[in-house]
Structures are given as C-alpha cells and as structure tokens.
Write a structure and sequence with these properties.
The chain is of the alpha+beta class. Helix content is about 15%, strand content about 35%. It has a 15-stranded mixed sheet that branches.
C-alpha cells in the first residue's frame, strides 16, 4: 500500500504535485500510486479526461486520463545500470540480476526457484528480503551509491494475455499487489537494452495477484521513456481526527 500526499505544484503548468509514502518513508516515484492519484483527482473534479502533468520527487511526469477511466503514466527516463550482477545470498546461494532505474532502484531477477503464486508470498518475501540484505552487505548499489530498495522477481504469466508475471518487494518488507509501475518501467528499460522489445511495442506485466499493466517505451535523445497504463478506483472517503490530547495522534515512531 502506498499513500499519496496531494501538494500544490511549483510549476503552474502542472495539475498537482504529489509525495508518495509507504510504511517506512517517502518514495521517489510510484507508478500505481500515480494511477490512483490521477483517478482520485478526477473523482474530486480537479481534472478532466486528457493530458496532464504531475510533479513528483524524481521529476515531472506526464499522465493521460482516458475516457474509460484508465490512466497512462509517461514516466521519467529509465535505464539499466548493470546487467547480470551476481551476489551471494545466505541460505540461497548465488543470485544474478539486473540493476535498473524506473523511478526507484530495482534488482531484477529472472532465475529463481520459487513459483510466483499467492500461496508462496511468505517464501517470496523471505527470498527477496535476503537478496536486498545481501546487496547492501556487498556494496551493490544504484547510481551514486543509492540503495537498491526494490527487489523484483520474474516468471511466466498465468494468463494468455500477459507477457510476464512478477513479485516485487518494496521498502519496508511489503510486497506490491500491483504489477509495479516503476518496476515495470525498469523491466522495459532492460528489455529494450537487450533488444527484446522495440519502441512502441506493448508489454503486459502481470502482478502476483493477476492484475495487469500494459507498458511501452519511447526513445528520445537516446533515453528510454516508459509509459504504463492501468486502472484504479476510489473506494472510500475518510477524515483523520488529530486530537492534541492523544499522545499517539501523530503515530508511532521507532
């Protein structure tokens, strides 16, 4: 689960600004969060179908609200910084993966021995958490020493219309129930680098629970710009009450 804090944009050409956060802190970018954020802006009557721009901590992204309610996120430039990076993971042995940026840093693993199924969530979480710790302990990072805080496993899809299924462990040891927009962006950058997709070609990424994002890439000035399309729906409205007499009204701090 990801929260989105609605902010006034610095650039008046943008519809809004947003800061994403999860159970341990803020996120630079969130694809499924952006889709939900745009769907919510539409629900609030702040935007209409068409093109809009949203400010995020990693830069301004373009979005398109379709008449159907679907949302396309035109993400920041994404790229693979290292391929087939090997790390020794205690209890699991050697693991190989790609290091890539899609708005967050990812370590993407193709070869593993755990089936990507909902009844394996515990085993998948244990594996990906161990991989993340091993990357940190071995000094394997993203650009400029940034921590790789998302681990993504891939496997065959369970539906005919998808190209791949994934499991994504996010910061805070929580898994993503969506196909992960930034993770799909990172995957698209790797696929393009390997010559497995071409500009404009669709790639359908299935999540651990079967939801699907469709992605494509555009190339501009030699950089890969992924676009992710998906849906989100408003399910509730709530009002927080902050009682100054409540010693825990601002939450628990570790």
């Amino acid at each position: 689960m990801v929260g989105a804090l609605l902010c006034d944009p610095v650039d008046s050409a943008c519809a809004a600004g947003v800061i994403f956060f999860n159970n341990v802190g803020y996120l630079g970018m969130c694809g499924h969060g952006t889709i939900g954020f745009v769907a919510t802006l539409a629900y609030l009557g702040r935007i209409a179908p068409g093109e809009h721009r949203i400010e995020t901590p990693v830069g301004t992204v373009g979005v398109f609200l379709h008449e159907s309610g679907e949302v396309t996120v035109n993400n920041v430039a994404s790229y693979r910084s290292a391929a087939n990076v090997e790390v020794e993971v205690p209890g699991y042995g050697k693991v190989k993966g790609d290091v890539a940026w899609g708005g967050n840093w990812f370590y993407l693993v193709r070869d593993h021995n755990v089936e990507l199924a909902p009844n394996n969530i515990e085993a998948l979480t244990s594996l990906t958490w161990a991989v993340r710790q091993a990357l940190r302990e071995n000094g394997i990072t993203g650009a400029e020493g940034q921590e790789i805080d998302h681990i993504e496993l891939f496997g065959p899809p369970q539906t005919a219309e998808a190209d791949s299924r994934n499991f994504v462990l996010c910061p805070g040891k929580a898994y993503d129930r969506s196909p992960c927009g930034t993770g799909t962006s990172a995957k698209l950058a790797c696929l393009y680098a390997d010559g497995k997709i071409r500009e404009g070609q669709g790639w359908r990424q299935e999540s651990i629970i079967g939801s699907v994002f469709e992605g494509t890439v555009k190339i501009k000035d030699g950089k890969v710009y992924p676009s992710i399309t998906g849906s989100a729906f408003v399910t509730a409205e709530a009002e927080l009450v902050l009682d100054p007499h409540d010693p825990l009204c601002m939450g628990l701090r570790g």
